């Protein structure tokens, strides 16, 4: 890639009078040796998988194999459609869609890791709800995924997208930044505004620990995906309004790396700290272990705290 930082990415876009998405498409063509059509077709397939995961999670609510989670996406979607959500119908819909994809992941369904399976709901939640809201064609959303990919590339190479290495800030935080930056560009913002959105988004998740109950990507991961989608919308709106990340986004990414390294082992996807070690978290873990010891791998009634 010709860029390794967000600043370099913006400078390339400015010098070539192009968008982040279109620049990333050309970089992918050079990196893979595939044609432009092949690269775009592959990304279009990813987007179709995302949309299908949203649809499945909303229309066919399924409990996770553990029985810990399931059905919350439908509850939020119904409330968004028929109630008067405090965050507004658009934000609540994005939240519902993000929950839907995360629940599909927890029930062993097919998702796209964006950038990880643990944060797979945020970009689809933002993208699919925005497509419905603004009437965008699939092609626009596919370009948006290239923009998100460029942002994710920089984060992954200068910090981390692994919860085991950097906590949940590395997974959910990165996804929020990717979604926010891409949404800014899809709504007509400049590459510079898109990168400010990334910094604004990442600042809000610095220090977020990874503390999955029973070591499963369910509690609190699914809820964090739902709320992460709303955070992405907010960061995008700030950037489009002209709010700038006073600390440059590349520096925020650097801080995310140092904060992740400073986190104790208990807060980096080990289930040895945080919510996983609350009385309820320990009780749920023991119930799941007892179920496993019984020799049954079948999905059962939801585990009760």
UniProtKB/TrEMBL annotation:
Disordered, as annotated region: 272-305
Q: What does the sequence similarity comment in the record state about its family?
A: Belongs to the iron-sulfur dependent L-serine dehydratase family.
PANTHER family membership:
L-SERINE DEHYDRATASE, L-SERINE DEHYDRATASE 1
Indicate, by first and last residue, each region the UniProt record lists as having compositional bias (Basic and acidic residues): 283-305
Q: What is this protein called?
A: L-serine dehydratase
Q: Give the pathway annotation.
A: Carbohydrate biosynthesis; gluconeogenesis
Q: Does the keyword S-adenosyl-L-methionine apply?
A: no
| SUPFAM superfamilies, per the entry | 2-methylcitrate dehydratase PrpD
InterPro entries given in the database record: Fe-S_L-Ser, MmgE/PrpD_sf, Ser_deHydtase-like_asu, Ser_deHydtase_asu
């Amino acid at each position: 890639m010709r860029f390794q930082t967000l600043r370099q990415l913006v400078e390339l876009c400015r010098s070539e009078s192009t968008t982040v998405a279109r620049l990333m498409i050309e970089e992918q063509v050079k990196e893979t040796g595939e044609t432009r059509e092949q690269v775009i077709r592959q990304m279009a397939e990813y987007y179709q998988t995302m949309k299908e995961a949203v649809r499945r999670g909303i229309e066919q609510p399924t409990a996770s194999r553990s029985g810990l989670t399931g059905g919350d996406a439908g509850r939020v979607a119904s409330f968004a459609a028929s109630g008067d959500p405090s965050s507004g119908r658009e934000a609540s819909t994005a939240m519902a869609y993000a929950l839907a994809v995360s629940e599909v992941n927890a029930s062993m369904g097919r998702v796209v890791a964006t950038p990880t399976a643990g944060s797979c709901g945020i970009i689809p939640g933002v993208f699919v709800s925005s497509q419905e809201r603004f009437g965008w064609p699939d092609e626009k959303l596919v370009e948006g995924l290239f923009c998100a990919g460029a942002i994710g590339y920089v984060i992954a190479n200068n910090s981390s997208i692994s919860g085991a290495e950097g906590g949940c800030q590395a997974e959910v935080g990165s996804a929020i930044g990717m979604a926010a930056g891409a949404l800014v560009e899809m709504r007509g913002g400049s590459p510079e505004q898109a990168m400010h959105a990334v910094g604004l988004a990442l600042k809000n998740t610095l220090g977020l620990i990874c503390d999955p109950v029973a070591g499963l990507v369910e509690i609190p991961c699914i809820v964090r995906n739902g709320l992460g989608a709303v955070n992405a919308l907010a960061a995008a709106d700030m950037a489009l309004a002209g709010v700038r990340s006073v600390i440059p986004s590349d520096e925020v990414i650097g801080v995310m790396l140092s904060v992740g390294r400073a986190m104790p082992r208990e807060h980096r996807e080990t289930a040895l700290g945080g919510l996983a070690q609350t009385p309820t978290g320990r009780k749920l873990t023991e119930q799941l272990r007892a179920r496993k010891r019984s020799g049954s791998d079948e999905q059962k009634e939801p585990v009760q705290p």
